[in-house]
Amino acid sequence: MEKNSKIAVLGGSGLLGSAVKKVLNKQGFESIHSPRSSEIDLLEKSRIEDYLEAERPENIFMVAGLVGGILGNNTRPADFLYQNSMMILNLLEGIRKFSPKSKLLFTGSTCIYPKENPQPINEDRFMCGKLEETNKGYAVAKGLGIVACQLYRKQHGLDTICAMPTNMYGLNDTYDLENGHMIPGLIKKFLVAKRDNGKVTLWGSGNPRREALYSEDCANALVYLMENYSSEKIVNIGTGYDYSIKEIAEIIKGETGGECKIEWDSSRPDGTFEKRTDIFRLKEIYSEFNPRSLKEGVREILDNKREVERILQD
Ligand SMILES: NC(=O)c1ccc[n+]([C@@H]2O[C@H](COP(=O)([O-])OP(=O)(O)OC[C@H]3O[C@@H](n4cnc5c(N)ncnc54)[C@H](OP(=O)(O)O)[C@@H]3O)[C@@H](O)[C@H]2O)c1
Fold first, then answer.
1. Number of domains making up the chain
2. Is 224 within the bounds of a domain?
3. In this structure, is residue 64 part of a structural domain?
4. Cα of 14 to ligand 1 centre, how many Å?
5. What confidence tens digit (pLDDT) does each residue in 3-53 have?
6. Atom of ligand 1 nearest to the CA of 41
7. pTM for this predicted structure
8. How far is CA 311 from CA 180, 270, 277, 307, in A?
């Protein structure tokens, strides 16, 4: 990528997209276009085609998607399947027809992997078993996106690459307790408990283990892959390290500075016990990749006054 290359960040208002724009800006890229869905709805084929015909961006970061936590995925599985499938299919067709020289980076998710896996989970596990029932629609759509990128690469010679980020958190996250992800949810619960002198109730035993990737670290990897990688092989983006949910809760409690009591509601399910990504392939491509610890990431969020105000208002 040249510093004046035309770069499109689709989904640039979201958690990951805003971090991609930040990294591109920091690295001196000058021509970044990031339309909102109100301007270019990726579900509208003609809108994306008109855009690609007019702009022909050299690099496209596809970080748009319908994203949510267990509740959203479980109650609206068909929406997650349909929207995430159509967005990537419309985009690939548009690129094929109007901008075949564009390089596309598609973000999937580690949800594409089967429910049961040897740990850590490596990329060859894709399509090797039954999916987790609660996010099946989202996972099938992301899997379809990968296969579509591979087939458009094979048949039409498009330069498509696919990255699979693990659980993320960071600035500009969604702090909706019903529809958001685990780490932003915990940050909000501990901040609210501190403000209200309350307690925090968490589901399950606290023993399952989870990875936590700061969005800007993921964005660094995506920009690096865009510049240095071209292959049909998908690439995991994780930290390679996991924490028990108890440890995650204690880290967040410690960083928020609250004294609140944590109660574990063991009548609630634990979910998958372990889900840690193998980042061997990523490290082979990008040996300097060095994601921050959860403690460092949470501190960055809490040091940002505007983000904390937003968390407490959301
Ligand atoms: N968050 C995670 O933990 C996680 C983990 C693994 C993978 N991922 C993947 O990473 C990507 C980014 O996730 P995120 O957490 O940053 O999502 P997010 O914060 O919810 O942001 C979603 C983005 O998608 C855009 N979008 C949604 N529907 C659209 C449409 N019909 N047309 C155009 N744009 C549309 C939104 O644009 P507007 O705001 O303009 O509507 C927004 O910028 C997604 O592909 C997701 O599957 C996320």
1. 1
2. yes
3. yes
4. 5
5. 999 999 999 999 999 999 999 999 999 999 999 999 999 999 999 999 999
6. 32
7. 0.97
8. 12, 26, 28, 6
